[in-house]
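Quick one, probably user error.
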């Protein structure tokens, strides 16, 4: 009897040790996951924070003889102002190098300043212009001035001009509002995410308008009205299979049907939203059916017992109770669609788009595609723009998932 008790105690202690090890293995797995996630976020943040600032150069522009905007040669006025700042630069090659201190958009910047403040005409105002990406990188410490001249992008004469601007207070760093308010550009210092963000919003609007009602109607038909048969089983199997199909297949389908067969405008949010709707529809149907199954059968039985028809029972009692779960599934599906790149590339939304789309049929790109394009650019300055855009995309995904959680908690009912 004593041996039996001793053996039982030993087995119990072994089981407790095994359970303790399993618990700690799970905790270590969670800690490792959180650690890798933190490392990823910290590295992306360190790279992307540079995109929130930009370097500017102050120049005194001679507009004293201009009575209107048409009287000003904008590009020449900025060039003359830069040459006047460095009168000792007379060599033709040095002047070309001097012009590289400024962004290629400086003439358009002057135009926008005059349009915003016509009182600048007839004066010699001191204005701030965006510096080139090399100067911006130097100001952020990405270019080491201690390296030999043949191993860095800025030559010695350019460094001397930059230091002269710093000594006179004509070079500063400011918050880069253009990153959030402008479209794409081939110049890193001018590139922004606004056009891509609007393209993503328009595409998601089309996606939600198509996939949400169709997904709910399909789920209601399959779950509440269809009888169990081989046909319904065939449909259910195919819906589950479509949810696992790679997203690029939907892009190929959209290219073949919407572009080639229907002739819809290429690289438009309309086609992008339709392709994303095809991709998210199976997910919404599956989530909606799961929400309908979670409604207790007693709700249906009570409504039918009180004389309600099958349609009244479904739309007046079952659907309102299942709607929180349906909304959650739809928002999760939209979050997945927001981060998709492959299907949008197949329908042409990978094009270089500068202008902000004004409608659903205008040419546009999306935020994930914009990140893909910037990541493929060789300029060092595009790396921080890529990281900053990733942070914006992650922020949108987190917000959408938080909205899904809040809606579920607010509207769910316990039985």
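Nope, works fine. Designed sequence:
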């Amino acid at each position: 009897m004593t041996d039996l008790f001793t053996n039982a105690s030993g087995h119990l202690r072994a089981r407790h040790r095994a359970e303790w090890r399993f618990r700690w293995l799970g905790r270590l797995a969670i800690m490792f996951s959180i650690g890798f996630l933190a490392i990823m976020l910290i590295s992306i943040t360190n790279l992307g924070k540079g995109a929130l600032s930009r370097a500017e150069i102050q120049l005194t522009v001679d507009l004293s003889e201009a009575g209107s905007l048409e009287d000003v040669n904008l590009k020449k006025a900025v060039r003359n102002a830069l040459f006047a700042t460095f009168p000792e630069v007379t060599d033709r090659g040095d002047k070309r190098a001097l012009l590289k201190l400024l962004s290629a958009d400086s003439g358009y910047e002057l135009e926008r300043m005059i349009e915003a403040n016509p009182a600048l005409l007839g004066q010699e105002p001191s204005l701030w212009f965006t510096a080139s990406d090399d100067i911006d990188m130097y100001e952020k410490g990405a270019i080491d001035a201690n390296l030999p001249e043949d191993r860095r992008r800025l030559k010695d004469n350019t460094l001397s001009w930059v230091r002269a601007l710093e000594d006179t207070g004509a070079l500063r760093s400011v918050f880069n509002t253009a990153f959030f308010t402008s479209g794409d550009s081939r110049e890193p210092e001018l590139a922004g995410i606004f056009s891509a963000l609007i393209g993503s919003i328009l595409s998601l609007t089309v996606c939600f308008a198509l996939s949400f009602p169709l997904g709910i109607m399909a789920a209601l038909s399959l779950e509440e009205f269809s009888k169990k048969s081989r046909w319904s089983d065939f449909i259910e199997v195919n819906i589950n299979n479509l949810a696992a199909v790679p997203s690029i297949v939907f892009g190929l389908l959209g290219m073949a049907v919407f572009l080639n067969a229907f002739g819809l405008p290429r690289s438009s949010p309309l086609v992008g939203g339709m392709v994303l709707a095809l991709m998210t529809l199976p997910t919404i149907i599956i989530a909606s059916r799961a929400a309908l199954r979670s409604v207790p059968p007693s709700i249906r039985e009570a409504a039918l017992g009180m004389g309600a028809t099958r349609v009244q029972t479904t739309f007046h009692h079952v659907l309102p109770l299942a709607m929180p779960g349906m909304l959650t599934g739809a928002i999760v599906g939209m979050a997945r669609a927001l981060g998709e790149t492959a299907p949008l590339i197949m329908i042409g939304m990978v094009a270089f788009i500068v202008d902000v789309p004004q409608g659903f049929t205008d040419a546009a790109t999306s935020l994930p595609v914009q990140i893909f394009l910037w990541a493929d650019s060789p300029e060092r300055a595009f790396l921080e723009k890529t990281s900053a855009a990733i942070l914006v995309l992650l922020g949108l995904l987190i917000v959408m998932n938080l909205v899904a959680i809040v809606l579920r908690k607010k509207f769910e009912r316990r039985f």
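The chain is about 65% helix and 5% strand.
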